[in-house]
Design a protein that fits this description.
Layout: E1 8-10, E2 25-27, H1 41-53, E3 56-57, E4 61-78, H2 80-86, E5 93-94, E6 98-100, E7 103-110, E8 121-128, E9 137-146, E10 152-159, E11 163-165, E12 170-177, H3 178-182, E13 191-208, E14 214-215, H4 222-232
Antiparallel strand pairs: 1-2, 3-14, 4-13, 5-7, 6-7, 7-8, 8-12, 9-10, 9-11, 9-13
Length: 240
């Protein structure tokens, strides 16, 4: 249904029909070109504004995320003297596999050193179970000899730089000198503990939820419309 606003204007008393005592109101219909009733300029302006408000800007969003994932693994050596006898220099025993950072790892323990040059030392290395060349893991690793209270021994805290783990492991050939360990209080009942702190460096691209589309809203021209109404008196319901 189309509603038309029919402005009312006053007719002078000397041109009115009737007894001349009561003002008569005359209906005046607003017409567009062609003589057909239509919407006023204000209505067309409002439709244009609504049309412009429907237009928005589509926005997408993503992020480059860098961060650290940190954890540790405790390796208990039980029966140290037996491991010395069974594993000569260059031979190691691998720990149980453990999962960290979405990958499987293990620690290789060399009780008589990995290299003959360092046969008087215990060597230790962290390795990936399945190294993937095109998907290496970058990590910083700290090896700690723990005392009987479970605290790191300050003289035996060794940290690697940032290493790229894929098909090889990283660690220290001279982690603990056997003579030092055997004469210390850090070994008890032929047992001692090594703690391996691992910090994985991660860098990945992620999708983000974009903000709602922005809307281009034109500045308000209400004051101009009100001014035109006051001057022209068009659109008024009744005028006197």
């Amino acid at each position: 249904m189309l509603l038309l606003r029919l402005p009312l204007t006053r007719v002078d008393a000397d041109t009115m029909e009737g007894d001349g005592t009561t003002p008569r109101l005359e209906l005046r219909e607003k017409r567009l070109e062609g003589g057909k009733p239509g919407l006023s300029r204000q209505s067309h302006g409002s439709a244009s504004i609504l049309s412009r408000r429907k237009r928005g800007v589509h926005t997408t969003r993503s992020a480059m995320v860098a961060g650290n994932v940190t954890g540790h693994h405790l390796l208990d050596i039980e029966g140290y003297s037996v491991t010395k006898e069974l594993l000569p220099c260059g031979k190691c025993m691998d720990s149980h596999r453990f999962k960290f950072g979405g990958r499987l790892w293990y620690i290789s323990y060399y009780p008589n050193g990995r290299n003959p040059v360092y046969a008087d030392f215990i060597s230790i290395y962290l390795k990936l179970v399945e190294g993937i060349i095109d998907k290496p893991m970058k990590a910083v690793v700290t090896y700690n000899l723990l005392d009987q209270a479970g605290k790191p021994v300050p003289s035996h805290i060794l940290t690697t730089g940032v290493c790229e783990y894929s098909t090889q492991g990283f660690g220290f050939q001279r982690f603990i000198k056997r003579e030092f360990l055997e004469n210390s209080d850090h070994i008890k009942n032929d047992c001692f503990t090594i703690r391996c702190d691992i910090t994985i460096k991660k860098l990945q691209a992620e999708e983000r939820t974009a903000l709602p589309p922005s809307v281009d809203v034109p500045p308000s021209d209400l004051h101009q419309h009100l001014g035109n109404l006051l001057v022209t008196k068009e659109g008024a319901d009744v005028t006197f």
